Structure to design on (419 residues):
């Protein structure tokens, strides 16, 4: 089979702007591992032809276009393979079923008596001044599960659930002094450990899906799945931006928003970076050496759980890199639902990472499980509003989320600059 035939079999115009928000899954949303591998083999063959043409006659525009199209198809397949399926909630006890039934009545008809009684019975702190009721626990779990599946940083960070408005964590920046002594020698007093207190306040994140009366009156529509599907994409998009570049004002603080410094001069409270040595680009000769430098800028204790984070344009540039034996450094997922890898380390595609440009911090690498903390305040609340946008019913859905760097030594950045 020729590359052109393979290319025709690949998806050319898959949706990039958002995921399905209906309770069903379209047939074209399913991506098999065989699809991924076939696309990557076509990419490698076309790229090898492109490189051969460059060596012989200075390039071939048709081959350049072919490689670019397969590259876009690969990105689309990777995006589709990350889509989580809508799953049903787990069965709970009698109280959970009662809450679910009361929540369903509130969503469909605005009847809040049952929910109000349940919150009083559960000794809840009560509804906030703007109203609203907690969604059933299985719906909240479903929203959290789907966010972890499609929100790239949440999927690799530490996620902690809190009951208050802020989470405070002491962190030891310098351990207690130690030393070797003889059996009968004196033990001089050592220096005390140095602690840093990190605070992670939970900020309010909201979505406001709308529904028609017909949808709400349709008994066949699963309200739990509908609300989870409607809010997940909005929450994931807002979270993704905040966890990467948020300024910490009424939102989480992203790891790119902290002060950065050349890794050789790294100090606690800053994020270290490795420069490419070329402004706005990888060096023309042996560009993959800079990726090796970035990997080994991370201490061994963090490196073994390291993950690359970059957007699809940066990943597209790196996908063409080869080692000295001609093998591609980027590899597609080794199994269904797996992650693409770069130099054996997983690659997370985060569209909020900046494109390669002068002075950009376009690649991050490190142990994000230890380096970045996401805090979720318990409870997702929904306020039914049938008045503001008649004839539609709005559902003002809120979730309290915070985040920030918790270990400044665990994450390193690549800076596309001369120094």
């Amino acid at each position: 089979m020729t590359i052109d035939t393979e290319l025709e079999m690949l998806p050319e115009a898959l949706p990039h702007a958002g995921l399905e928000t209906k309770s069903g899954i379209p047939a074209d949303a399913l991506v098999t591992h065989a699809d991924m591998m076939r696309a990557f083999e076509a990419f490698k063959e076309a790229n090898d032809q492109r490189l051969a043409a460059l060596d012989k006659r200075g390039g071939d525009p048709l081959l350049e276009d072919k490689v670019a199209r397969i590259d876009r198809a690969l990105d689309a397949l990777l995006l589709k393979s990350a889509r989580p399926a809508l799953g049903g909630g787990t069965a709970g006890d009698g109280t959970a079923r009662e809450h679910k039934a009361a929540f369903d009545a509130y969503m469909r008809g605005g009847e809040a008596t049952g929910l109000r009684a349940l919150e009083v019975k559960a000794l809840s702190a009560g509804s906030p001044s703007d109203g609203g009721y907690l969604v059933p626990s299985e719906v909240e779990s479903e929203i959290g599960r789907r966010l972890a599946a499609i929100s790239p940083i949440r999927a690799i960070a530490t996620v902690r659930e809190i009951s208050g408005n802020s989470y405070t964590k002491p962190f030891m920046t310098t351990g207690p002094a130690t030393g070797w002594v003889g059996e009968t020698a004196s033990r001089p007093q050592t220096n005390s450990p140095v602690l840093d207190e990190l605070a992670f306040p939970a900020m309010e994140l909201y979505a406001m899906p709308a529904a028609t009366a017909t949808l709400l009156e349709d008994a066949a529509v699963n309200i739990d799945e509908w609300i989870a599907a409607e809010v997940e994409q909005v929450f994931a998009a807002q979270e993704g931006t905040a966890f990467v570049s948020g300024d910490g004002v009424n939102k989480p603080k992203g790891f790119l928003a902290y002060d950065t410094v050349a890794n050789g001069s790294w100090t606690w409270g800053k994020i270290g970076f490795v420069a490419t040595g070329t402004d706005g680009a990888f060096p023309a000769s042996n560009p993959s050496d800079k990726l090796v430098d970035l990997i080994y800028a991370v201490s061994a204790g963090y490196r073994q759980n390291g993950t690359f984070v970059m957007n699809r344009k940066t990943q597209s540039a790196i996908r063409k890199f080869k080692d000295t034996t001609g093998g591609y450094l980027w590899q597609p997922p080794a199994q269904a639902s797996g992650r693409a890898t770069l130099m054996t380390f997983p690659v997370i595609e985060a569209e909020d990472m900046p494109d390669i440009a002068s002075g950009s911090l376009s690649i991050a690498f490190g142990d994000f499980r230890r380096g970045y903390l996401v805090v979720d305040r318990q409870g997702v609340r929904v306020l039914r509003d049938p008045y503001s946008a008649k004839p539609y019913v709005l559902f003002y859905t809120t979730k309290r989320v915070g985040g920030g760097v918790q270990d400044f030594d665990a994450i390193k950045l690549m800076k596309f600059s001369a120094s």
Q: What stands out?
A: The chain has two domains: 3-81, 134-176+192-311+350-419. DSSP finds 13 helices and 16 strands in the chain. Residues 11-29, 87-92, 123-130 have pLDDT under 50 and may be disordered.
